[in-house]
Amino acid sequence: MPTRDPKISPSVVRRLPIYLRHIQVLRGQGVERVSSQEMGNNLDLNPAQIRKDLASFGEFGKKGVGYEVSYLERKLRQILNLDRHIGVALIGAGHLGIALSNYARFQSERMTIDGLFDSDPQKIGAKIGHLTVEHVHDLETACQTRRMQIGIIAVPAIAAQGVCDALVKAQIRVILNFAPASLRIPRGVHLRNTDFTTELQSLAFYLADD
Amino acid sequence: MPTRDPKISPSVVRRLPIYLRHIQVLRGQGVERVSSQEMGNNLDLNPAQIRKDLASFGEFGKKGVGYEVSYLERKLRQILNLDRHIGVALIGAGHLGIALSNYARFQSERMTIDGLFDSDPQKIGAKIGHLTVEHVHDLETACQTRRMQIGIIAVPAIAAQGVCDALVKAQIRVILNFAPASLRIPRGVHLRNTDFTTELQSLAFYLADD
DNA sequence: TAGATTGTTAATCGATTAACAATC
DNA sequence: TAGATTGTTAATCGATTAACAATC
User: Backbone phi, then psi, for A67, in 5-degree steps?
Assistant: First the structure.
């Protein structure tokens, strides 16, 4: 396997799951081969970009032929670490947390939510799907004993930094934050914000002024 | 007001709500003036970038002094169209939809969810906060009579394209999609995808391989 | 005034796209 | 073989950052 190149750009990494999803659809349709041209058409991306993105991880295609769907899927899973189990800790058992925990295991059997936490005494012990809500106080221990590697913050903005700090303390190095707050993290931690307030407000810019 | 410059880049637009949020916090703290330097420190952004972003809409600061917090807030709201009422149609009354509709009205009293739709007969008529779940069949009429301008898709992937088409038919030109699906839209429609599956999968790339 | 900080131009950096030799 | 399509280099485009004159 090619060494993890620290020079792979974030833009490339963010397109990989899009390729993976498309490839999975193709496999479901029984398609065996696909060209960058066809993928580009379907995903509204430049074929050269797709080839370049993929080529930064190895030579997955055949000149004159294209990419073999099942092979490419396997490779993409490898690159994204989706070929092994990844445990996710989800903090916040409100509607958002429940919605996320229902999300069909992220369409990849290998990534699962292995812990659901909240600070509301009323919620502790409640069953949400196959999960039982635990107290955030137990987050650190749980992350270590259950070897969870990704944290999802789905709590109110006011509580987000505290949860973030707890995750960092628990050695979690990859965090997805849904709270509308700018979180402070130490170097070495990957934080991604999915802030729906921000998205909506920036979209409002494009409304016709009338 | 400066004319809507079609050359304002998406990257700039996406930072505006981040500035707005920070400015609101400052106002809440009673801060009256702020420099690009200070904002940059707090938001982890380059001060030159902040100045340049803001300057593309006018001269909001004073040389040697900085930006007046309340004036900048007012200007940012204007630019983002957040100084007037914006009606949002939310489709999907599952946990995600409920979470979104609870979201404190997007921290801007002027943007509100004015319609909540679903296709599940069981849900039609149910009360979610101050909203009553309506049938998607009524989406088009509702968007027009209630003059809703933004659509949020919070339905399963399989239903997303249908809802998207209905929104477009209802003259909605700005759409925020939460379903993990690549939607087809006609030119002139602004679509933003917030795909949490994709986010998580790309984050998995950064896990240490062990 | 002197120090500070904007608005803006120029320089740099990074990402996308075009083009094409290699080759299946 | 001839046509197709990759992998990759070079060209272009766009976004970020540095630098500084203008000025509060």
Answer: -110, 135
Q: Which residues in chain A have Cβ-Cβ distances shorter than 8 Å to B182?
A: 18, 21-22, 42-44
The domain that holds A170 is classified in CATH as 3.40.50.720
Cβ of residue B99 lies below 7 Å from strand D: no
3-state SS class at B102: helix
Q: Which of B29, B62, B79 is the last residue of a domain?
A: B79
**For residues A150 and A171, what is the distance between their CA atoms, to the nearest angstrom?**
10
Per-residue pLDDT tens over the stretch B66-90: 999 999 999 999 999 999 999 999 9
- How much is the average pLDDT of B36-63? 96
A44 and A126 belong to one structural domain: no
Q: What is the pLDDT of residues B96-129, one digit of tens each?
A: 999 999 875 666 678 999 999 999 999 999 999 9
Asked which of A182-191, B30-39, B103-112 is least confident by mean pLDDT, the reply is B103-112
Beta carbons of B96 and A96 less than 8 Å apart: yes
CB contact under 8 A, B182 and A17: no
Residue B49 lies in a domain: yes
Structure tokens at B140: 């088009």
Check pLDDT > 70 for residue A104: no
**Single-letter amino acid code for the residue at B124:** I
Q: Are residues B131 and B175 in the same domain?
A: yes
A105, A147: one domain: yes
Q: Is residue A3 part of a domain?
A: no
Q: Which nucleotide is nearest to A54 (CA to C1')?
A: D7
Considering only the beta carbons, identify the residue of B95, B100, B204 that sits closest to A196: B100
Task: In whole angstroms, give the CA distance from residue A43 to residue B189.
Answer: 17
Boundary (domain end) residue, out of B79, B107, B126: B79
Among residues A153, A111, A143, the alpha carbon closest in space to that of A20 is found at: A111
Same domain, B99 and B147: yes
Say whether A17 and B201 touch across the interface (CB within 8 A): yes
Q: What pTM was computed for the model?
A: 0.91
Domain range for B150 is 86-199
The minimal CB distance from A202 to the residues B14, B100, B197 is found for B14
Closest residue to B95, CB basis, from A95, A176, A203? A95
Q: Among residues B199, B188, B189, which one has the least CA distance to residue B164?
A: B189
Kindly determine whether residue B182 and residue A102, on different chains, have CB atoms separated by under 8 Å.
no
